[in-house]
Write a structure and sequence with these properties.
Elements lengths: L1 E4 L3 E4 L6 E2 L4 E5 L9 E7 L6 E7 L9 E2 L8 E8 L3 E9 L9 E5 L5 E3 L5 E4 L3 E12 L4 E6 L4 E3 L5 E6 L5 E5 L3 E5 L11 E6 L6 E7 L4 E7 L8 E2 L8 E6 L5 E6 L10 E4 H4 L10 E4 L3 E7 L27 E3 L4 E4 L1
Parallel strand pairs: 6-11
Antiparallel strand pairs: 1-2, 1-4, 2-7, 3-29, 5-6, 5-8, 6-12, 9-10, 9-13, 14-15, 14-16, 17-18, 17-19, 18-22, 20-21, 20-23, 21-26, 24-25, 24-27, 28-29
């Protein structure tokens, strides 16, 4: 665990049922020594009445159970503001000073993105020589780090950032992955490295919200083949896009912009009907997620093949200037402090 205290000290300690680390704990989390993307934003007062300093830092190369001082090591120092940011988010804050003497400027904004990321031992930059009354968040943090490349290793059915397996793309904090299974279910969620994917997965890729998904499926109730095109309407929830009849089954699914399918028919009285090529984009418009779709054919189908898609120039992805992301916090239920400063981890 990594623990930060109000006096500006920090410790990495082993997870125990009960362990004393100090009083006034402001942040506790599981510590990953290989994590280079989590950035801590902090403002602290130097000593009891000194100036306030601002700093951004990453934590690595530490000794367990050693107390590290993140301030200027003067007695009475205190952390005035602190956030931990899994993707190097840099929020904009508003500084409000106490009214003392003839100070004219009592309020101004500070963007953490303008502060260089340095080591934890750095002193930081002076943000104010006068006493700070309050610090407020004006804008949520945006990532100041480069997008992270994510791969999929099919031998263990997991994602990784170690260049093992197939590259899925570069992911910003708000980017998500699309997962589709052979059972006709899909889900869009944040790519978590701890997720284990099922063997019946047929699509795993970076999700592009405005790119239609095309599917051909057999409806068990009507005993007909249907084709549909749709967009994902709900994130973070697994949903089925084919009918729920026990005999319904997904034949093909495609995430190309202009997919093409080939229908191979059964022989009827020794006569073989020619294969039918279907331009799915022309065959049906994009409809709602729950739409039944259009009937594909009334003939007996032997096989459905997915062919090479038609040429299409995908629109250039626009990278937003600001990406809103919530800072993760520890709920009160995750830690419990005794009166003597003991911390109990659950």
């Amino acid at each position: 665990m990594i623990v930060f205290l109000r006096d500006g000290s920090m410790m990495i300690c082993k997870v125990d049922d009960k362990k004393f680390v100090g009083k006034d704990i402001i942040h506790v989390a599981v510590f990953d020594k290989s994590d280079k993307r989590t950035i801590y934003n902090m403002i602290y007062r130097d000593g009891k009445s000194g100036p306030a300093y601002i700093k951004r830092f990453n934590v690595s190369g530490v000794t367990r159970d050693k107390l590290y001082d993140l301030t200027n090591e003067n007695k009475g120092s205190q952390v005035l503001y602190f956030t931990h940011n899994p993707n190097g988010e840099a929020e904009v804050i508003t500084i409000l000073l106490r009214q003392i003497g003839s100070i004219k400027k009592l309020k101004w904004d500070v963007d953490f993105a303008s502060i260089a990321i340095k080591g934890r031992a750095s002193k930081g930059n002076i943000v104010s020589k006068y006493p700070i009354k309050k610090i407020e968040i004006k804008e949520k943090g945006i990532s100041t780090l480069l997008p992270r490349k994510v791969w999929f290793d099919d031998t263990v059915q997991r994602l990784n950032v170690d260049a093992r397996g197939e590259l899925l793309g570069e992911f910003r904090p708000t980017d998500k992955i699309l997962v589709i299974s052979q059972t006709g279910k899909l889900k869009v969620n944040i790519p978590e490295l701890s997720t284990h994917f099922d063997e019946d997965m047929v699509v795993l890729e970076k999700w592009i919200p405005n790119k239609p998904i095309s599917a051909i499926y057999y409806d068990g109730e009507k005993e007909r083949y249907y084709v549909k095109r749709f967009l994902v309407e709900t994130e973070g929830k697994e949903e089925s896009f084919i009918t729920d009849h026990p005999n319904s089954q997904l034949e093909i699914v495609a995430t190309d912009y202009r997919p093409v399918a080939e229908l191979v028919f059964n022989k009827i009285k020794g006569v073989q009907k020619e294969n039918l090529t279907v331009d799915i984009e022309s065959f049906i418009a994009v409809k709602g997620f729950k739409a039944l779709g259009n009937q594909l054919t009334t003939d007996k189908v032997k096989q459905i093949n997915l062919l090479e898609p038609l040429p299409y120039e995908a629109p250039e992805e626009i990278v937003p200037e600001k990406i809103e992301i919530e800072n993760q916090v520890i709920d009160d239920g995750d830690i419990q402090l005794d009166d003597d400063g003991q911390i109990t981890l659950f």
